[in-house]
Predict the 3D structure of the following.
Amino acid sequence: MQDYAPLKNDLLLRALNGEEVERPPVWMMRQAGRYLPDYMTLRAKYSFFERVENPELATEITLMPVDQVGTDAAILFSDILVIPQALGLEVRLEEGIGPRLPDPINTVDRAMDVVQPDVEDRLHYIMEAVSMIRTELDGRVPLIGFAGAPWTLLCYMIEGRGSKDFSKAKAFCYQNPQTAEYLLDTITETTISYLKAQVAAGAQAVQVFDSWSGLLSAEDFSQYCMPYLKRIADTLAPEVPVILFAKGSWYALERLAWRTDASAVGVDWATSPEYARQATGGNITLQGNLDPSRLLGPVSEIRKQTRSMIERFGKDRYIANLGHGILPNTPVDHAKAFVDTVKEYRD
């Protein structure tokens, strides 16, 4: 790893390490883009994957919320579906519609043809962006890298698009359990290599997004999510703090906290701070969990809800965040009110 400027704001890393802090750090999932006017300007000029695959554009977008909203961390501007791309699947992202994989995996033979790629070759532009972002941040805040969780990526790779229930993906796994295990193993090893490459390029923490784990029962989570999340966290943890976010899987908080080497687990807005603390026993840093729709309300209410959230979680072993990604129609001054309220917080 090349030499970068010393870190001036280390609140996020201290919270991930379980240290006492003067206030919680704050950042927002999907903070890079979507709701920012400067991002809309770039979106009008470049397609989504042109933005992702151009390190200069990815750097510019990643820095926007740090410069304009004042978050305590930057998160790489990219997409979870770069891994399916690296695995040989075509991915299209249609503005206002979502991702499309026009030739999804729909047979056992097709699934068994998927092999682990050289991610540093296939996704070199991501690592170039990470390095460029670290240089441009100049130590202001840490940089978070990320990847999609194996189960969530498998859902897209089989379903071919977003879905309310991912019934095709689930049916494929139930009908072909050994093939599903092979796919999940391959995605997992690819993801580990990808995150290691991000860390080598300069990422100071990583988050794994399991956006669709909440569609599974607690028993199915044990089969299709937990072993792979654990393998990723336990492999990366000696190198970098790992945040696991299994949206909707409140029943798995205890297992994620006690049975993995993750430094933090994300909490969505459907789970109370009190339950999350009880389930994890104070053993791990928690991150979340303001409903992103709350940022559409009055600023006075945003401030009230944010202060209440911090008081319920407690300022230590806590990272203030949303319960999922910021909504595209969020006013920038409302996002800033959320961030400022956290930054002004003191016991």
Remarks:
- The chain has a mean pLDDT of 97.
- The two ends are 38 Å apart (CA to CA).
